[in-house]
Design goal:
The structure is a single chain. The chain is α/β, with parallel strands linked by helices. It has one domain: ABC-type transport auxiliary lipoprotein component (Rossmann fold, 3-Layer(aba) Sandwich), CATH 3.40.50. 19% of the residues lie in helices and 35% in strands. The protein is built from two helices and eight strands, in the order ββββαββββα. The strands form two sheets. Strands 5-2-6-7-8 form a five-stranded mixed sheet, with helices on one face. Strands 1-4-3 form a three-stranded mixed sheet, covered by helices on one side. A hairpin with a 7-residue loop joins strand 7 and strand 8.
Length: 178
């Protein structure tokens, strides 16, 4: 007879779920009856990156963390972080990732074509974005940014911090004041 209880001690380490943290929610100022509404659409990422796996590139290979995962798909994490960071910079507007009744004043569409955190601690991001007015007679504003950073990738928390920092730089580059 096989003793099923003997397998209990063979369990692996606990799986940790990570999120991209952003500015702490504070008391938002009153927006008035007709605020500017900026809808942040779900960020587009290369398919190989848009998963719950925490990845580090090692040459042409992605190394997946054995102990950590994103709490949700990376595109959702990035969309949430961008929304929070942009909202902190535009307290006069309602910056949201949730569709509301009616047409928003602007839509922000971000496409990240490269987001690499490498085993040597280097990280690169390339992104394009469009700010699309709700009024079709106004021009669409487009821009792009490339960001390079260096940091530790010794732990999953280090990789998450590097991802968070590089997305923070992207948020700084997006000018919603235009």
């Amino acid at each position: 007879m096989i003793d099923g209880l003997s397998l209990v001690g063979c369990a692996g380490p606990a799986l940790l779920l990570y999120t991209l943290a952003g500015p702490e929610d504070g008391v938002a100022p009153a927006l008035g009856a007709r605020p500017t509404v900026i809808l942040v659409e779900r960020v587009t990422l290369p398919d190989e990156l848009d998963s719950e796996d925490i990845l580090v590139r090692d040459g042409s290979v992605f190394r997946r963390s054995a102990k950590g995962r994103w709490a949700s798909r990376l595109s959702l994490q990035i969309t949430g972080l961008l929304t929070r960071q942009l909202a902190a910079r535009r307290p006069d507007a309602l910056v949201t990732q949730q569709a509301l009744a009616g047409e928003p004043s602007y839509r922000l569409r971000v496409t990240i074509s490269q987001l690499d955190v490498r085993a040597d601690g280097s990280a690169e991001l390339a992104a394009d974005w469009a700010i699309i007015p709700g009024n079709p007679s106004l021009p669409v504003m487009m821009d792009r940014a490339t960001v390079s950073l260096r940091g530790s990738v010794a732990t999953d928390a280090d990789v998450v911090a590097l991802d968070q920092a590089i997305i923070g730089r992207l948020a700084q580059a997006i000018d919603l004041q235009k």
